[in-house]
Design goal:
Structural class: alpha+beta
Strand order of the largest sheet: 2-1-3-4
Helix content: 55-70%
Order of helices and strands: HHHHEHEEEH
Number of strands: 4
Shape: elongated
Largest sheet: 4 strands, mixed
Number of domains: 2
Distance between the termini: 28 Å
Radius of gyration: 25 Å
Number of helices: 6
Oligomer: single chain
Length: 164
């Protein structure tokens, strides 16, 4: 079974692959549509002919929608903006570190450094205090949770003792 980190890496590869395919298909169609008039009676056929052989239905529908709106001339700039859209805004991953007592600056820096090394520099960290933890930490990064609190360890010990 893949861990959340592995799942995130695989999901990113899938995302990159899909976006690259869409951009490549839009780029391939753009020059072929440069001289197509929005009022062309054979507009749908001209769009079909401009598309790569195995164009995604979403790409086909998008270009047809642009044509219906009279915006085919904007396709090259839309492709450029779409390509920059994903690159221009790095995805910030949120992390929350909960401890039983307030952590000092050295502890916060070490935890921050370790988490950024593992998850990347685009990590937004929040530190919280929850006195009910007794000791230890709960670290949440995205949808992943590492509960190494004393409360959780005592709960596990109690469940194991009751199960025996």
């Amino acid at each position: 079974m893949a861990t959340t980190t592995d799942s995130g890496t695989i999901a990113r590869a899938l995302y990159d692959s899909i976006i690259t395919t869409v951009i490549d298909q839009l780029r391939a169609a753009a020059p072929n549509l440069a001289n197509v008039s929005d009022s062309d009676p054979n507009l749908a056929q001209r769009v079909e002919a401009a598309l790569p052989a195995k164009a995604l239905p979403e790409v086909r529908n998008f270009i047809l929608a642009l044509a219906r709106e009279g915006a085919l001339d904007q396709l090259p700039s839309v492709v450029q903006a779409f390509e920059n859209y994903g690159r221009g805004t790095p995805q910030v991953l949120e992390a929350e570190v909960t401890s039983a007592v307030a952590l000092n600056d050295l502890q916060r820096d070490r935890i921050s450094s370790d988490l950024r090394q593992r998850y990347g520099s685009d990590l937004e960290l929040t530190f919280k205090v929850d006195e009910s933890l007794i000791g230890g930490l709960i670290i949440r990064v995205g949808d992943q949770v590492l509960d190494n609190s004393l409360r959780a360890r005592l709960g596990t010990l109690q469940r194991n003792m009751l199960a025996s």
